[in-house]
Specification:
This protein is of the alpha/beta class. It has one domain: Rossmann fold, CATH 3.40.50. It has ten helices and nine strands. The strands form two sheets. A seven-stranded parallel sheet has the order 3-2-1-4-6-7-8, sandwiched between helices. Strand 2, helix 3 and strand 3 form a beta-alpha-beta unit. Helix 2 packs parallel to helix 3 and helix 5 packs parallel to helix 7. The longest helix has 21 residues. It is globular.
């Protein structure tokens, strides 16, 4: 796997903390060139320093994935520096609680803008150069929450489902140009997004193990990759539960309190 990434140019959004930062440091240790994108400059610069210490070349771009013009400028800077982006990973995203009986349109709008529009703003600017070269790999970090509408997660589940379907369409359209498209579906991973006790999070895995699984899925050009295996099985059961069972049983398993407030996680 290290040989695959050595000398490759990889763009990662949401790279200042959590899954994005750890994945960047791991790929830097494999010898990749990293373009790190995030909003928080001090944390981003720290992540850049860790990537360089790990052995990779790294540059940072302070920016918001909802800013289409800013993401296009980031693309231009990456292509000017390295000539090409081999892998673009749209990792930036937010979680959120938004119960149907206490729904916030503001929370919904923010989740959709970051998770859906932000993903498109990240990936699409690189498509033209990949088509020209007939090479490249676009990766979106979705979630196992994409497959059914989870309790109190109307905004989050729907945004992750939208990511999944968007990436599938891209995969179908770009296949003829030899461009790979992957949709990654993590379960619960240790990160700032999961650092709370608002609901039950079974089989939570370490950030580094998650990074290793994502890195391998990219090497294997997986169209869709679900992990960890325990949550992959749980997700398969959930997807096939009859509606009357799902509606009754699943909300009871979440460990939610009685007074759920809409919020970004």
């Amino acid at each position: 796997m290290k040989d695959f990434y050595r000398g490759k140019t990889v763009v990662i959004t949401g790279a200042s903390s959590g899954m994005g930062k750890d994945l960047a440091v791991l790929l830097a240790s494999y010898g990749a060139n990293l373009a790190l994108v995030a909003r928080r400059q001090s944390l981003l610069e720290a992540a850049q320093a860790e990537c360089k210490d790990a052995g990779g070349d790294a540059v940072s771009f302070v920016g918001d994935v909802t800013d289409a013009d800013g993401m296009a400028r980031m693309r231009d800077a990456v292509l000017e520096r390295w000539g090409f982006a081999d892998v673009v990973i749209a990792n930036a995203g937010v979680g959120g609680l938004n119960p149907g009986d206490n729904f916030s349109l503001d929370v919904h709008r923010k989740v959709v803008e970051i998770n859906c529009i932000g993903l498109a703003n990240t990936l699409i600017p690189f498509v033209a150069s990949m088509i020209k070269r007939r090479a490249g790999h676009l990766v979106g970090i979705s979630s196992l929450a994409a497959f059914r509408g989870l309790p109190n997660a109307g905004s989050y589940s729907s945004s992750k489902a939208a990511q999944m379907v968007f990436l599938e369409s891209l995969r179908v359209d770009l296949r003829k140009h030899d461009i790979a498209v992957s949709c990654i579906h993590p379960g619960f991973v240790e990160s700032p997004m999961t650092d709370h006790d608002d609901f039950f999070m079974p089989f939570k895995m370490s950030t580094r193990k998650s990074s290793e699984l994502i890195a391998r899925a990219i090497v294997n050009r997986k169209a869709s990759y679900l992990y960890p295996w325990q949550m992959r099985l749980v997700s398969a059961v959930n997807r096939n539960l009859p509606r009357f069972i799902y509606d009754t049983v699943v909300p009871r398993l979440g460990g939610f309190g009685s007074d759920i407030k809409p919020k970004i996680l």
